[in-house]
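For the sake of transparency, this paper describes our internal protein records without simplification. The remainder of this section carries one protein's record, kept here as part of the documentation:
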Amino acid sequence: MFNLKENKKIYVVTNRKLIDKDSNLCKVIEKCALKGADGVILREKDLEYKDLKHLGESIKIITDKYKIPLIINGNINAVLDVNAYGFHTGFQNFKSIRGNENICENLVVGVSVHKVEEAVEAEKLGANYLIAGHIFETDCKLGLKGRGIEFLEEICEKVTIPVIAIGGIKENNIKKVLNTKVYGVAIMSSAMKIR
């Protein structure tokens, strides 16, 4: 899929539970980086700080080697201790941490949004980029209909910061997404199954 990105970006979102038994997350990240990933978002929500930090340190060796950013989801202490490029969080959590400006002043901060209003507010509150989704139906959100290209286009019209699309993006639909004003896409399932 990385060969389809043209001048847009592809970010890999991790989910070690999707990896084949004969591989591991670091091997998968290295393969993605070799094929042209533009960044890695370490999103392992079930890990406690110590394990997330340890995994982040291992992945940062790879991202540094390929000169791509490592962004850690959900744990600001792990972000700071690993010296990651950025911090990613959900919209509600972002609203609550914005009062503590010193935590995030030297980091790129991304926010997941599921409504146009959230996108607009996140930009006003200082988000550096948005992940908008889910665009298409995905196994990660079973039973939930995708929000569609129109949703993505509306967000791209309403904000000036980069918007990254996520959710069910595959080789057969990535062009539809990349033909919008989107900055890039985030992929999980197809990246974790890379060969």
In short: The chain has a mean pLDDT of 93.
